[in-house]
Specification:
- The structure is a single chain.
- By secondary structure, the chain is an all-alpha fold.
- It has a domain of 136 residues.
- The protein is 78% helix and 0% strand.
- Helix 1 packs parallel to helix 6, helix 2 packs antiparallel against helix 3 and helix 3 packs across helix 4.
- The longest helix has 26 residues.
- The chain is globular.
C-alpha cells in the first residue's frame, strides 16, 4: 500500500470511527442511575443538594470510600469514584462520554508510544492501526451497556482498563526519556497512577 492509498484508508477509518461514536454519545441523554449507582451516590447526592459545594461533595465521597474500605473491601479509589457518580449531580448523560473518551484516548496514547516511539512507524501507519484497533474495541465490545452506560459497573472496568493503558504509556515514556527532570515527572505520575489503579477492580 503506497502513501496515497494509506492516507485514503486512514481517513475513511477515522470517519467511520467518529460516526460510530456519535450514536453512543447520543443515547447518553436517555440514561439514568441504576443499582449500585444509588447505593454509592446517595450520600454525595444528599450533600450536593444541600450545599451545591463541590468540595463538600468530594469530602462526602472520601468518607464513603473510607467506610467501604473498613466494612467491605479495599477498592479505595473505585469506591471514591463510585460515590462521585454523575447521577448524584444530575449529569448521568455524561457517563458514555467519559468512559468512551478514556478508552479511545488511552488506546491512541499507548499505540503512539509503541508505534511511533518504539517501532518508529510513520504517522499514517500509527493513525491507521490505532483507529482500526479502537474501532474494533468499541464496536465488538461484549456488552455496550456494561462497558459504556452503567457508570458503577463500566467505570470499575472500562475506566481502570484505560488507566492501565495510560500507565503502560508512562512506563514506556520513562524508559525512553533521557532527561533527568522528565524522568522525575514521569516517575511521579507513574507512582500516583499505580497507587490509584491499585484501588480499583481486582483484575486491574
Amino acid at each position: 500500500m503506497n502513501k496515497k492509498q494509506l492516507k485514503l484508508v486512514t481517513s475513511i477509518a477515522i470517519v467511520i470511527l467518529l460516526l460510530s461514536i456519535i450514536p453512543i454519545f447520543w443515547i447518553g441523554q436517555y440514561l439514568h442511575p441504576f443499582s449500585d449507582d444509588y447505593v454509592f451516590g446517595a450520600e454525595v447526592h444528599k450533600v450536593w443538594n444541600a450545599t451545591h459545594s463541590l468540595s463538600a461533595s468530594i469530602m462526602a465521597a472520601w468518607n464513603v470510600a473510607i467506610n467501604m474500605y473498613h466494612i467491605w473491601q479495599g477498592t479505595y479509589s473505585a469506591c471514591f469514584l463510585m460515590a462521585m457518580q454523575p447521577g448524584a449531580f444530575g449529569m448521568y448523560w455524561i457517563v458514555p462520554i467519559v468512559l468512551l473518551t478514556s478508552l479511545v484516548t488511552s488506546t491512541f496514547t499507548l499505540m503512539y508510544m509503541i508505534m511511533r516511539k518504539v517501532l518508529h512507524a510513520s504517522k499514517l501507519e500509527y493513525l491507521f492501526v490505532s483507529t482500526i484497533f479502537v474501532l474494533i474495541n468499541v464496536q465488538f465490545v461484549y456488552s455496550p451497556y456494561d462497558a459504556f452506560y452503567w457508570y458503577n459497573g463500566a467505570m470499575y472496568y472500562t475506566l481502570y482498563y484505560s488507566l492501565s493503558l495510560f500507565l503502560a504509556s508512562l512506563l514506556i515514556a520513562f524508559e525512553l526519556s533521557c532527561n533527568k527532570y522528565s524522568k522525575y515527572f514521569i516517575g511521579g505520575a507513574t507512582i500516583f497512577l499505580t497507587i490509584f489503579i491499585a484501588g480499583g477492580n481486582f483484575v486491574s
